[in-house]
Design goal:
The chain is built from four helices and no strands. By secondary structure, the chain is mainly α. The chain has a single domain, classed as de novo design (two linked rop proteins). Helix 1 runs antiparallel to helix 2, helix 1 packs antiparallel against helix 4 and helix 3 runs antiparallel to helix 4. The radius of gyration is 15 Å and the shape is elongated.
Length: about 120
């Protein structure tokens, strides 16, 4: 079975977040903010998977909505980690761009799902 775009992109993003977390904890010895980043960044894809396996259209919408919020939260932690010099600009910009892309896709899915549900 072929996975959809949001499944693929959120999974690849989660891998990048896990690697950023390893870097932050091993190299920068940062354990608090990085844990927040890990939780929100990997939660995006987990909620997408839950949405796809949802029991109803409303369940799907609720889980996609959580994924969208987690993508926005992830951008916040990335910006904070960059502003406090834990992440360099280049890595951060790439991750923030990916989080922004996920947010846009999720927002679009959410909008069309809500329109189709009414």
């Amino acid at each position: 079975m072929k996975e959809n775009v949001i499944q693929q992109k959120s999974f690849v993003f989660a891998i990048r977040i896990v690697n950023a977390y390893k870097y932050l904890t091993e190299q920068k010895k940062e354990f608090v903010l990085s844990k927040q980043l890990l939780r929100s960044g990997t939660s995006i894809g987990a909620n997408v998977e839950e949405a796809i396996g949802g029991q109803s259209k409303n369940d799907f919408i609720a889980k996609i909505s959580i994924s969208y919020k987690e993508a926005r939260e992830t951008k916040y932690w990335l910006n904070l980690l960059t502003a406090t010099d834990y992440l360099d600009e280049k890595l951060s910009k790439s991750l923030i761009n990916d989080a922004e892309e996920l947010s846009k896709i999720l927002s679009s899915i959410l909008l069309s799902s809500k329109q189709n549900n009414s």
